[in-house]
Amino acid sequence: MPGEEQRSSSPKGDSAHKKIGFFQDLNWRLEAVAFAALFGLLRALGVERASGFGGKLLRTLGPLTGTHRTVTRNLRIAFPDIDAAERDRLAIDQWEQTGRTFAEMAVMDRLTPSSGRIDLVGFERLHAIRDSGRPVVFASGHLANFEIMASAILAAGVPCQVTYRAANNPYVEVQIRQSRARYGIKLFAPKGDGTRELMAGMKRGESVALLVDQKYDQGPEVEFFGQPVNASPGAARLALKFGTVIQPLSVVRLPGVRFRVTAHEPITVPDTGDKAADVLAGVQAVNRFVEDRVREHPVDWFWVHKRWPAKVYAALRASET
């Protein structure tokens, strides 16, 4: 489900990859061997031990990286009123969640709704979508193990194009695709340049699943935690074009490597005839939805990426001096 763009899954799949030198190709192959070995180990450990291993590993190593500064700054932007000790605790705890999510990628075929580890709330909405045969735009953010949402959509029987960001290493990308195929994800579509593919899929009656909380350098400016952000207009544009709703989903991590996936009240993009204003309203609505979910369970969000524009971080740094 996560993603921004599509790249070739084969190192020789396009002219750019044909120009890759011997040492780059060798490095990719070595990385892929290491990746396969790690995923093999995690699968051998089983769901709970793999998740725990990933959580402990990043809880230990994450705070030692430069990315930890991004985490703490993001927390200061989002929650300026909580005390420093609480922010520090949250910064450490979110590393454990991130580590668990990465490790769980290796065992996602054991974390489907049929596994008994996922509680589904409001999924009569998804069943109604399935029975109607009309596509919707699923939208969410990087909440807990966000791969769970794609698994839940497909388990509900809704044909859906799931967006993703391809790995830079094409050999690793093949392994990731194979891993996702094990738990039912067979429809892949890029974001950004993939608008044509997404629209074609919706014309066929396939829904689209998008994560809307990535950094986006262009697009309409909306508010996120009281600060301006440029947000992707894709979900609102598609919903408006096809006369359908945005169906927001959320996932919360529960004890014992269990999750709760909730299908919330659909978001209707206004259709006043002022397309720019209508899209802006839809984009603000989905970003407000993500913000509300983060406020409910802040430890579950993916705090390691720079969500806000440079001017917001610059203002924060200025206040630190």
Explain what you see:
With 321 residues, the protein is an alpha/beta fold. The chain has one domain. Helix content is 49%, strand content 13%. The protein contains twelve helices and nine strands. Strands 1-9-8-2-5-3-4 form a seven-stranded mixed sheet, sandwiched between helices. The protein has a two-stranded antiparallel ribbon with strand order 6-7. β6 and β7 form a beta hairpin. The longest helix has 24 residues. The radius of gyration is 20 Å and the shape is globular.
Describe the structure concisely.
It contains twelve helices and nine strands. It is α/β, with parallel strands linked by helices and 321 residues long.
